[in-house]
Amino acid sequence: MSKQIFKYAVPVEPLFGLLDKICIKEDNTYIFNNNAYKKGIFDNNIPPFLEECKPYYHASKQKYVEKKMSYTAFTTVLRQICNFNDIKYTTKIRYEKSTYEIVYYICFTSLPDGVKGLPDGVKSETLDVGVE
Question: Is the dihedral of CA 112, 115, 119, 125 positive or negative?
């Protein structure tokens, strides 16, 4: 399924760089919730991350990173990148004051080398994907 979304291997470094800036770290996980999303929008960390991810998507799937972002839309992008790179994550639904929020716990200890889908010895940074 992920080959239908991404045309190149998506590096994990930008993802974990973003999560380092906006998420709470607990044990071996990043906790991504609505507050982390709001912090990323306020500090202007999320829009550059999405622009960096855009060249990796097939043209027909770039709608995921181009549309007006919301918490739900951004978590879709997070899940796509995590699933592509075999990054483990879990979710928990938290109810508070008659509303709910899906909290993501993204594991950063069992990471692969971040170059899924590439031949041995080829790093994703060496691919020319038109990133300026």
Answer: negative
The answer for 32, left when phi > 0, alpha when psi is -120 to 50, beta otherwise, is beta
| Boundaries of every domain in the chain | 2-109
Round to whole Å and give the CA distance between 129 and 53: 10
Cα angle: 88, vertex 10, 5; to 5 degrees: 90
Over residues 105-126, the pLDDT tens digits come to 999 875 445 444 443 444 444 3
Q: Which helix (H) or strand (E) holds 74?
A: helix 71-84
Q: Which amino acid, 125? A: E
pLDDT in tens, 80-90: 999 999 999 99
Place of tokens 């470094």: 13
